[in-house]
Amino acid sequence: MLENNPRIEGDAEIVDEAILSRRSVRAFLPDMVEDDIIRAILAVAARAPSGTNMQPWKVYVTKGESKQRISDAILNSGIRAEKADWDEYRYYPTQFFEPYLTRRRANGFGLYGALGIGRREVDKMRAQHDRNFVFFDAPVGMIFTIDRRLNQGSWIDYGMFLQNIMVAARGRGLHTCPQAAFAPYHRQIRPVLDIPDEEIVVCGMALGYEDTSKPENAFRTDRVPLQEWVTFSE
């Protein structure tokens, strides 16, 4: 029991704090993150479990000019996010339904409300969404890929790897924002990073130090109570 083992209790508090403080930060300071820190985070994250230890992840770390080239390629493509073709995989259902529709709307209204963007201010909403493609000004942008021959089990493994990155970043005082928004722009990203055709772009991720002065970073999502989604059986 935790209460009988102070060391374990202390460890639990540290781990829990890293998990609970992880959130999608959408405004970063320009302060650079050293390569050694990035490598340490990725090395720790790679301890994620994967079926038969296949380790299906591949990561392209971008900074400076290469990151800017990704941003330029997407923002100059003329392809609006609502028209982007999710031709490699689909992140969301074709038709949203409850309870997921209500949760999605609450998230969007909450974020735009924090930014003072009204429900009919479509241009401002688009401009905020486009900030995905500059990695919300984070100094580090990562693009993640997976071999297209792998199956759903490896995608489950990939999710655990991504979560490890975000938690390990918190342990070092850094924040992240996982970004599926990059996936439909794989044609723009591939030539910049020389990504081979056999790899699917899974998502991107911003990494850096939070800009606490920005209103979007004051926004917090909630979570559904356990009793609504957990069943105990004996």
Automatic annotation (TrEMBL):
Which GO molecular-function terms appear in the entry? Answer: oxidoreductase activity
- Gene3D superfamilies linked: NADH Oxidase (3.40.109.10)
Family matches, as InterPro entries: Nitroreductase (IPR029479), Nitroreductase-like (IPR000415)
List the keywords (alphabetical). Flavoprotein, FMN, Oxidoreductase
- List required co-factors: FMN
**Which superkingdom?**
Bacteria
Domain (Nitroreductase): residue spans on this chain: 19-209
Q: What Pfam family does this protein match (any one)? A: Nitroreductase
Q: Quick check: keyword Magnesium in the entry?
A: no
Entry similarity comment = Belongs to the nitroreductase family.
Q: Tell me the protein's name.
A: Nitroreductase
